[in-house]
Amino acid sequence: MRVTIFGTGYVGLVTGTCLADVGHDVVCVDIDAAKVEGLARGVIPIYEPGLEPMVKANHAAGRLHFTTDAPAGIAHGDLIFIAVGTPPDEDGSADLQYVLAVARTIGRHIERPVIVVNKSTVPVGTADKVHAAIAAELAQRGVEVAFDVASNPEFLKEGDAVNDCMRPDRIVVGSSNPVAVEKLKRLYAPFNRNHERIVVMDVRSAELTKYAANAMLATKISFMNEIANIAEQVGADIEMVRQGIGSDPRIGWHFIYPGAGYGGSCFPKDVQALARTAQHSGYRARLLEAVESVNDSQKGHLFELIQRHYGDDVRGKTFAVWGLAFKPNTDDMREASSRRLLAQLWEAGAKVRAYDPEAAEEAHRIFGERDDLVLCDSARAALADADALVVVTEWKQFRSPDFARVRQALADGVIFDGRNLYHPDEVESAGLAYYGIGRGRSLRSDAP
Ligand code: UDX
Fold first, then answer.
1. pLDDT tens per residue, range 213-234
2. Which of 70, 71, 75 is nearest to 25 (CA)?
3. Residues 81, 110 contacting (CB under 8 angstroms)
4. Does 2-201 carry CATH code 3.40.50.720?
5. DSSP alpha helices (H): ranges in 77-142?
6. Whose CA is nearest to atom 28 of ligand 1?
7. Which one of 153, 164, 217, 369 is most buried, counting C-beta atoms within 10 A?
8. 223 lines ligand 1 (CB under 6 A)
9. In this structure, which CATH number among 3.40.47.10, 3.20.20.10, 3.40.50.720, 2.40.50.100 belongs to the domain 202-448?
10. Nearest CA to ligand 1 atom 16
11. What atom of ligand 1 comes closest to residue 158's alpha carbon?
């Protein structure tokens, strides 16, 4: 099928590449000429495992094209996807200016019937706005072209996006138009294996489904962080509690890891946006507000543990920080917990030696040159001349360090483990002090 995708950001690029990989003829349109030119040469602007060879192979095979020429893109596609950004505006609502700009461009140029598909995460009711924007442009041109707007939210995880796209657990198609449903079913047939994965529903339900999925996952995390904070107070170990509840299939093992808070481009923005959507519709989403506020304080929790150890005086101390990205396997630092921690450490007069396997460049872009930050080339280099270690992102390579060596490197011999990667006993037996998240056991003065 002939597909056009507006936006070669994370979602647009991964989706376009996967659709090309199963044989569709895909044109990706972006207004950023340098990015388009780079993509055509195989330069991928994001770090995503497995994506680069797929982009190159499908581009070389002539199934994946990149262009800034919007009219040509619009002429190409039977299905036109909108996959541009929806950043939060001042009150946390999703800003639709980019989505609606694409809609107007489509309206200015379509000549034959098309199905427009919203892939961007957009508030309930956006398909109607996109429909109205296209219709207004058509009216201005004085032409009539049949078109419809469907919703088809993505459920990609950064770091595993290619896999999520190639092997989706569900494909949500929001449309009450049989032609659109049929086209989207044909488009996704190659991904719909073994059992039916396509769930067809009305547009508004599809739009809400995306927010509900992310809000549910964020809720699980904030819930566990809340229980972790209780565990810390009452002298229990959240890791034991986690194992004690995860085996109940109604609860499940996924997304019950306490930590330094959730970050990234989706959860923080989507929980906020859903709360605003609710508010604008006249309903106060108290649970979502709580999820957001628990996460906000959780991002400051590592620093609280640091203060618990050092008192108020960390001035002049040097902290080795392992992990800057908001999660492993990405270089993305949007809303990352590391950003809050670094800001707090600097504010308190401490210095940072940080290592992240992928995010150094991004960190440099965000923080620039400063005296109180050294971006190191390895986990071990970050430890040199440091007083304490803080683990912020759970990269695999941080999971089993040589604690004796860590002990030797750190002047104050203390680890703050923001992702509960280590067993307190193992760390403590190497002569290090240990602070984890929700591990009240190791904080109790009467602990064995
Ligand atoms: C998320 C959703 O998982 C995905 O389905 C949606 O399409 C986009 O948003 P992503 O933001 O890439 O994907 O990352 P994810 O792996 O979900 O992690 C989000 C954050 O939650 C990370 O900061 C992670 O460290 C944190 N997290 C996750 C926890 O703190 N505990 C957990 O148990 C799981």
1. 999 999 999 999 999 999 999 9
2. 75
3. no
4. yes
5. 97-109, 126-141
6. 255
7. 153
8. no
9. 3.40.50.720
10. 157
11. 12
